[in-house]
Amino acid sequence: TQLLEQSPQFLSIQEGENLTVYCNSSSVFSSLQWYRQEPGEGPVLLVTVVTGGEVKKLKRLTFQFGDARKDSSLHITAAQPGDTGLYLCAGATSGTYKYIFGTGTRLKVLA
Amino acid sequence: ETGVTQTPRHLVMGMTNKKSLKCEQHLGHNAMYWYKQSAKKPLELMFVYNFKEQTENNSVPSRFSPECPNSSHLFLHLHTLQPEDSALYLCASSHPKSASGSEGAQETQYFGPGTRLLVL
């Protein structure tokens, strides 16, 4: 059974701090996505990475796909209260159209 | 607003009730999905429809019955549920992706806000 483990599970930080969230698996994925979900809403896609070693930046968010395409990280610089939410990674294996979702990281940024 | 709406937003039902969840998308997509999000488990894919045909049933109990009358609407009919079925049920839609694609699933899924279900 494929499993995507995210760490940490919970994170509470002060505004302005930096943080990194990890998404790890023993499986190889052809693509990996990161979502943010706010209370009362569904997940919203932030980024898709498809190439091993790929780095994508979205304003203060930096996403990296591991060289072996088994893991990924999300780094947030100078976190803001608006970054608060549940961060989910999701991986798809080649030849499928299904995404397996990670266990989630719940982030709270305090003003 | 993602273009995917779900009703009702909240639902409380007894174990003997029958209810239906509704999802509607205004994005012109032809693939629709039902997911279950529980407090202590990862988001779980339940059903996938491509062009109104069910292409995935992820070992979901028969007390959950999906229906896709057209590409814009998706229902989840519920009957004789159990308390452990209490969860957030999310609908999503995307452009369809062939399972034979070598690059895997890259189509963006747009999620609705979910229906918060409590089974008593």
What would your notes on this structure say?
The complex is a heterodimer of chains A (111) and B (120). Chain A is mainly beta and 111 residues long. Chain A contains no helices and 11 strands. In chain A, the strands form 2 sheets. In chain A, strands 2, 4, 5, 9, 10 and 11 form a 6-stranded mixed sheet that branches. In chain A, β6 (55-58) and β7 form a beta hairpin. Chain A is globular. With 120 residues, chain B is mostly beta strands. Chain B has strands at residues 4-7, 10-13, 18-25, 31-37, 44-50, 53-57, 64-70, 73-79, 87-94, 110-111, 115-119. Mean pLDDT of chain B is 89; it is low at 99-105. In chain B, the strands form 2 sheets. In chain B, strands 2, 4, 5, 6, 9, 10 and 11 form a 7-stranded mixed sheet that branches. A 4-stranded antiparallel sheet of chain B has the order 1-3-8-7, with no helix packed on it. Chain A binds chain B through residues 4, 29-31, 40-45, 48, 50, 88, 90, 92-104, and chain B through 2, 4, 31, 42-45, 48, 56, 90-92, 96-114.
Compact overview of the structure:
By secondary structure, chain A is an all-beta fold. Chain A has strands at 5-7, 10-14, 19-24, 31-37, 44-49, 55-58, 61-65, 71-76, 85-92, 99-101, 105-110. Chain B has 120 residues and is mainly beta.
Overall strand count of chain B: 11
Give the H and E element order of chain A: EEEEEEEEEEE
Number of distinct helices of chain A: 0
Q: Identify the overall geometry of chain A.
A: globular
The end-to-end distance of chain A, rounded to whole angstroms, is 40 Å
Order of helices and strands of chain B: EEEEEEEEEEE
SS-derived structural category of chain B = mainly beta
Mean pLDDT score of chain B, rounded?
Answer: 89
Tell me the major beta sheet of chain A: 6 strands, mixed
Most strands sheet of chain B? 7 strands, mixed
Which residues of chain B form runs of ≥5 with pLDDT under 50?
Answer: 99-105
Number of helices of chain B: 0
Oligomer: heterodimer
Rg for CA atoms of chain B: 14 Å
**Interface with most residues:** A-B, 27 and 31 residues
Give the fraction of residues assigned to helices of chain B: under 10%
Q: Radius of gyration of chain A from the CA trace?
A: 13 Å
Distance between the termini of chain B: 31 Å
The low-confidence runs of chain A, each spanning 5 or more residues with pLDDT under 50, are none
- Alpha-beta classification of chain A: mainly beta
